[in-house]
Amino acid sequence: MLNVGVFGVGHLGKFHLNNWKEIAGVNIVGFFDPNNEVAKEVAEKYNLKRFLDEDKLLDACDIVDIVVPTDHHFSICMRALRKGKHVFVEKPLANTMQEAKDIMNMAREANVKVQVGHVERFNPAFLALKDVNIKPMFIEVHRLAQFNPRGTEVSVILDLMIHDIDIVLSIVKSGVKNIHASGVAVMTDTPDIANVRIEFNNGCVANLTSSRISMKKMRKIRLFQKDAYIGIDFLEKKTEIIKLKEAKDTNAFFFDLETPNGTKTISVCTPEIPETNAIKMELEAFVDSILNNKTPVVSEIDGYLAMEVAHQIIEKINNTNRQSK
C-alpha cells in the first residue's frame, strides 16, 4: 500500500483527492493547505486528516502530490526529494529554470520517481494516436480560454501554452532551432495572449496560439505530414485522420480526389474515443511507474524541457516588448 499526501486542496487539488480515492493500492494519509476555510471543508467532506506541519505529512507518505501555486513547487519538491519521496507535481515543474534544474538533479540523486502533471498527454483524443506513425512537418495549435483569475500568477505561456509545448515536443522529438514570439498583456501584468513559431532542427515548424481572454474555448492541434493530416480536438475529445493511402481502420470512409498527379484515393478515419478520466489515468500511470520501476510518462526531464522552451518564448516576448517601447 502506497501512502499519499496531498499538498494543496483547492480547485484542482479536490479533483486529485477524488481520483486518489479510486486508485487501488493507494491510501491518502492526509493533506496540507494553509487556507483554514478550504481545509475545514475538505477534512469534513473527505474524512481526511489535515496536517499543520508540512514535514510531518512528508514523513507520513510515500508519494507527495503537489497541487499548489507554481511559486511553491520548488520548496515542497526539494523537501520531499531529500526525504526520498516520490513526487507528482502539477505543471509547470517549477517557477524558474534554476529551480527546475535543481529538482531534476535532486530527483536523480534521490533515485525516486517524479511525474509532472501535463494532463493532456492522457487526453483520450491524443491517446487514440498511440499506434499512428506521426512525423509532422507543420503543426498548428490553438488553445483559447475564457478569463479566469485562477492561474494568473504566471503568464499565458506557463498557464496554458505549456500544455501544447509538451505535446509538440513529445511528437516532434527534435531539438529547437529557432523561436519567434509575440505576446500582449491585456488583463494582467504578464502576457494574456501569445503567438509563437517554433522551428525544429528536423525541419518541422509549429505555430502555437494561446489566449486566456477569449470569448470561446478551443483546444485543437492540427498536424500536417507527407502522407496525412491529423486533427486533435482536446476539448471535444475528437480525432480525425485523413490520409492519401488506404486506411486499415474499418471506421474509415473513402473518396477520390483529382490532383495534378492523377486521381488519389483519400481515406478519412475518426477513431472511436472512449470515455476516460485523464487525471485518474495520469495518477494511475505514476503509481505504475513506482511499482514497476518504469520511467514516468511525463518525467521531470520532460517537464524541464517544456519549461526551457516556455522560458525562451517568454524572453523573446519580453525583448520584443522592450524594443517596441
Describe this structure in words.
The protein has 325 residues and is α/β, with parallel strands linked by helices. The chain folds into two domains: 2-118 and 279-299, NAD(P)-binding Rossmann-like Domain (Rossmann fold, 3-Layer(aba) Sandwich); 122-275 and 309-324, Dihydrodipicolinate Reductase, domain 2. It has nine helices and 14 strands. The protein has helices at residues 11-20, 36-46, 54-60, 73-82, 97-110, 124-127, 156-172, 278-291, 300-324, and strands at 2-7, 26-32, 63-66, 86-90, 114-117, 138-144, 176-184, 193-200, 205-211, 218-225, 228-233, 238-243, 253-259, 262-269. The strands form two sheets. It has a nine-stranded mixed β-sheet with strand order 7-8-9-6-10-11-12-14-13. A hairpin with a 2-residue loop joins β10 and β11. α4 runs parallel beside α5 (97-110), α5 (97-110) packs antiparallel against α9 and α7 crosses α9. The termini are far apart. 38% of the residues are buried.
Query: Would you give the CATH topology of the largest domain?
Result: Dihydrodipicolinate Reductase, domain 2
Name of the level-1 CATH class of the largest domain: Alpha Beta
CATH architecture of the largest domain: 2-Layer Sandwich
Separate helix tally: 9
**Oligomeric grouping of the chains:** single chain
Average pLDDT, rounded to a whole number, is 92
Radius of gyration, whole Å: 21 Å
Number of strands: 14
How many separate domains make up the residues? Answer: 2
Proportion of residues in extended strands: 25-35%
What distance separates the N and C termini? 58 Å
**Uncertain regions spanning at least 5 consecutive residues:** none
The SS-based structural class is alpha/beta
